[in-house]
Write a structure and sequence with these properties.
The protein is built from four helices and five strands. The protein has 93 residues and is of the alpha+beta class. The chain has one domain. The longest helix has 6 residues. It starts with a strand and ends with a strand. The strands form two sheets. A three-stranded antiparallel beta sheet has the order 1-2-5. The chain has a two-stranded antiparallel sheet with strand order 3-4.
């Protein structure tokens, strides 16, 4: 299943999508420590599998929370995606 966290407004779509099937396969969840803002959290899904999601307080401001790694211009350092070995994390913008 693909879980989408974020929002859509007049300036665009701002979502982090996490493929929970791929996320389940990852034992260490290195994305939790890789995110400098710590917007990700571990939780049990509806099937009691341990997966990663975006914390509630960041979902409506994800574009701004992720600005350190995803500036409007210049080099992007998507730490959460780089360390995600199964490739479960995607950004829409």
């Amino acid at each position: 299943m693909i879980a989408n966290y974020g929002y859509k407004d007049g300036s665009g779509d701002f979502f982090i999508s996490i493929d929970t099937d791929k996320c389940i396969a990852c034992e260490d969840k290195p994305c939790l420590e890789a995110c400098p803002i710590k917007i990700l959290e571990k939780f049990a899904d509806d099937y009691d599998d341990e997966v990663v999601g975006v914390k509630e307080e960041h979902r409506k401001k994800i574009k701004y929370s992720c600005a350190e790694c995803k500036p409007a211009s210049g080099e992007r350092n998507l730490a959460c995606q780089k360390v995600c070995q199964p490739g479960a994390i995607e950004h829409s913008w």
